Amino acid sequence: MPDTAMLQVRDLNVLYGDYQVLWDVSMEVGQGEVVAVLGPNGSGKSTVLKAIMGLAPVKSGAVMFEGKDLTKVPTHEMVGLGISMVLERRRLFSQMTVRENVLLGAYHRSVNKETKSRLEWVENMFPILAERRDQVAGRMSGGEQQMVAIARSLMSKPRLLLMDEPYLGLAPRIVKQIADMIKRVNQEGITVIFNEQNVQLSFGLSDRGYLLEGGRVVLSGTGDEMIHSDVIRRVYLGA
């Protein structure tokens, strides 16, 4: 566990209607860490991120960010607290240009006066965005669209970046590029929590990780501990 947690999820229970998805989930994310949440389909790993962001209904428990309970904060105010999220499957405005999509990330009053400097920063990180600024986003490849989605989230100047299945549907070569981008984002001082299904991709990149099964945390540890865990082998390989 980190000495000082930036994010603490405590005994989180989430229901969609009468169906319970998360059961007493607890986890911590330290300042400057990359933390992976792993689990098979239906394990609740996307719901954890959505609950943190206020996009899933929390029945009980707490989500504490720098001492503030996020369950009492509306989703549209998360950006002002320094939290941003890259949604599953990018969710770009396909008929808008790359530049227009990226600029949408700076809408919040906490950063809209820094739009020019933020744009220069993200385009320095992702030069292809400057090269393709006038291209319609829907005509880009999946990997290029993911870069746009990440850049859009970074425009809000987050201290904590949530990424919902950032590798979904991407070719292996592109997956490596996205993994390298996550590392670079983290090197810029941004704490990252992401979810995935691939063991090597998740825990090879992360400082620590959590394994969900049936909506419950069944294992946590360092990235190396998780990769070599017998529990991981049982859940994923049936061993």
CATH topology of the largest domain: Rossmann fold
Which regions are unreliable across 5 or more consecutive residues at pLDDT < 50? none
Helix percent band: 25-40%
Number of helical runs?
A: 10
What is the spatial order of strands in the main beta sheet?
6-7-8-3-9-10
- The CATH homologous superfamily name of the largest domain equals P-loop containing nucleotide triphosphate hydrolases
Instruction: Write the CATH architecture name of the largest domain.
Output: 3-Layer(aba) Sandwich
CATH class type of the largest domain: Alpha Beta
The number of domains is 2
Percent of sequence in beta strands: 25-35%
Shape by Cα distribution: globular
First-to-last CA distance = 28 Å
Quickly give the structural class.
Answer: alpha/beta
Molecular structure report:
With 239 residues, this protein is an alpha/beta fold. It folds into two domains: 1-82 and 159-172 and 191-239, Rossmann fold; 92-157, no CATH class. Helices cover 35% and strands 28% of the residues. It has ten helices and ten strands. The strands form two sheets. It has a six-stranded mixed sheet, sandwiched between helices. The protein has a four-stranded antiparallel sheet with strand order 2-1-4-5, with helices on one face. A hairpin with a 2-residue loop joins strand 9 and strand 10 (216-222). The longest helix has 16 residues, at 172-187. The model has no long low-confidence stretch (mean pLDDT 87).
